[in-house]
Amino acid sequence: MVAKKPSLAVIGAGRVGSVLAAYLMDRGYPLVGVGSRTEQSAARLGNRLKVPWSTNGAEIASKADLVIVCTPDSQVEPVVQAIAAKRGFWAGQYVFHTSGALSLTPLAAAAEIGAFTGSLHPLQSFTDDPEQELPAGTYFAIDGGKEAARLAASLVIELEGVGFTVPAGERGRYHAAACMASNYLVSLLHCAARLLDGCGLTEWEALQALAPLLKGTLDNVSRQGTGPALTGPIRRGDAATVRRHMEALQAAGDIDRLLLYRALGLYTVQIAERQAGFSEDARNELITLLNSNGRNENER
């Protein structure tokens, strides 16, 4: 006999909530409705999925076996408290949030009623595209007691993902890693594209030119790891080329990008020095150069 899937309510009709609601509904989880702070966002998702919607989270949550709170981090606790105050939770219910940075503390109001609380954070980047897909193989950071963790693990399997547990004390480091790999990658590409301003490319054209390079690099990293995938002048110990880069940024008065280049360069030296064939002399020369403004001593 196939176990009955729990009915589902999604609170928060933004990027993450929209994707999870659609995917779980498609996999047989009865979606009783969606709740959101504004009528516009609640109606947009509810009408698209043809389910009830409301700005009253308790009205939707009270009807579901599983409530997934997909609000911004700062709103998780007040939203949960508001639903609890209106008797939207009940003992034996499951209440999850999708934050990567938060522990289970913001769900305390639901836990006090007797709900099983947990978290389910997809390690993925979400945009405003209503048709965004959730790639198979996406990792999910899960947390919770025995009952909640069991259900979270089953949801991850349904979503064709990979689940792993992040201890409460490590949530900050975990989410910092996610931000660096996703948000700061966007910042880095913005920086690189702007450096191509003088090469006859618009910012959009520059991004298109950089995309194959980025894809090739990510493919190499996924196959070989970061160390073996590292290429370029620092990996070769080529201080002369690094100096030319720094001098060009200095000459253009591009101080912010020069500082970023130097910081990333120093970190890259730490990766390079662990690879075969990278000499201590090259390491020392690069560190000295990257800690300077890029000019030769006799030019000062």
From TrEMBL:
InterPro entries: 6-PGluconate_DH-like_C_sf (IPR008927), DUF2520 (IPR018931), NAD(P)-bd_dom_sf (IPR036291), OxRdtase/DH_put_Rossmann_dom (IPR019665), TM1727-like_C_sf (IPR037108). Gene3D superfamilies: NAD(P)-binding Rossmann-like Domain, ProC-like, C-terminal domain. Residues 138-267 form the DUF2520 domain. Residues 7-122 form the Putative oxidoreductase/dehydrogenase Rossmann-like domain. It comes from the Bacteria. This is Predicted oxidoreductase, contains short-chain dehydrogenase (SDR) and DUF2520 domains. It comes from Propionispora vibrioides.
